[in-house]
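Recall the central idea of this unit: under ordinary conditions, the amino acid sequence of a chain determines the structure it adopts. In this exercise we apply that idea directly, starting from the sequence alone.
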Amino acid sequence: MKRKFDCKRIQILDDWSLRTKLYILFIFCVLIPVLATNAVFYQSIKGQIEAKEQSRLNEMQQRIRFNLRNSLDNSLYVSNFLYTDATLNRFMESKYRNQEDYYFAYYDMLSGNNLVRYYYSYQQVNQVTFYVDNDTFVNGGNFIKLNDDIRKSEWYQALMNTDDQMLIYSYFDKQQAEMSQTQGGRKVSIIRKLNYFGKQQVEKVLKVDLDYAFINKSFKNEGAGGKIYIVSDDRIIFSNDAQMNQARKPFKRMSSMEPDASQSIESIPVVSENWQIIVRGERLDFLTEMIDSRSNLLLLVILNLLVPTLLIWLISRSLVDRVGRIARHLDQVKQERFEVITEPAGKDEIGSLTHSYNMMVVKIRNLIEIVFKGQVERQALELSKKQAELKALQSQVNPHFMFNTLETIRMRSLIKDEHETSDIIQKLALLLRQTINWGNDLVTVEDEIRFVESYLVIQQYRFGDKLQFVIDVADPDILEMRIPKLTVLTFVENACIHGIEGGSNDGVVEVSFQKQHEQLHILIRDTGVGMEEDKLALLRNMMLDPSLERLSELSSIGVMNAFIRLRMYFDERVHVDIVSERYKGTTICIKIPLVQAS
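Accordingly, the structure predicted from this sequence is:
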């Protein structure tokens, strides 16, 4: 039972095409294992990368919190010391009789107290300004009189509207943005009421402006591989994002940005507010760390997928193409077309199968050529001979009586001294005997020349001086070669009847035998009326596919009959060329291989 099941399973596999089997091997043995391995590898690497990225973001967030807290603490340090400075408080509380008294007091305060100039040494502090509601003050340096315009300002209103004595406030100074090309208009300031020493006679406000450009630059340097946003009340105060960090434009809103689920948010208390530190890491792509080393990634892809795919594609193409080629040629064998596979076969099993197929086709073709075609040609030759003999028998009426009659006429001509007539009758009798006797169809060139000469003498007796002829043999060895009987005579007869007899002028018939390029060249040329173009084209067309059945298409069958007999004896290696020009004559060249003619 198990063996039967195994045989059935193998038979199912045998029914699949070779291409399908190779595809299945590729999918289940290469593609799926590689994808599964890469998926496991990806999950492992992805987890490590995410953990590493989260650790990096946490470290970045800690550094940002430390730097931000350091910058704010330094500014608060300046603000606290100025807030508790008694010398400054007395200077701002005092009334001055004139500007001269004010300047003396101002310089005395500076000479005895360097706090203001000292705190400018902190890089995080950009500007320290005292706003004093004292009419005896002169605007200049770090001291400005508190007037109605200042009370209407955004930052002052924010201070007055809060219960806190100190706040940190960020705003956009449009006037400064228009006046300064370098600093821009964004400001972050620590603002407080100067009421440390109890009830005061004048209103005093201290504003410490942070160095926005310096602090923001530190975030730019920190933000490699992620985006940093310091947010206060939905306003992005500091950032390393160039789109959000344009100092000559108002602060951007965090709500205007698309949310990011992977961002990290931390709140820190800053004076009177809670600022948010938002860090957004770069999105993780497939094998992010491998991308940092492109050579490793490229090597991994080549080893895992491209090399196996390429090898399987090349092997499958080698197998499928050659098997398909053999299948196509076998289909042609079904249609009795035996063609050899000429493409490179290879040295494997399929190559051996191809060589075996070629040997089989060659043997089949040789078998058909030798047995089948040889038999057909022999049958055609016998049939042609029988038909010729039948025509000869049908054309003769008591040949013995006719030959005896011709001999009687010849003897009577000799008695009357009519020797010319006697010679003509003798040659005519010779031709008749050879025409009737088909026992041996192959004759020597010498015998064929004797027939041709006898015929031309008879025609010359008939036409008189109108017909002249020349017979030339270039090599004596040619006389011993053999050709089908009366083939040359047929072409000569055609030249006399259709060429010379049809014209009004004298004509010449030339017959020559010579050797050229391992061939026997037989040339029959006449100077008669030539052939019409349509008749010449029909004759040439029939010579391309000669057959006895097509003889009825020609009015004169002699030339075609002779050509068929030549092909029967010498196969397709005999060539007959016909050249004819109207009123100038016709030339027929017969080319027979010397090996066969010998």
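The chain has three domains: 52-281, 289-396, 440-593.
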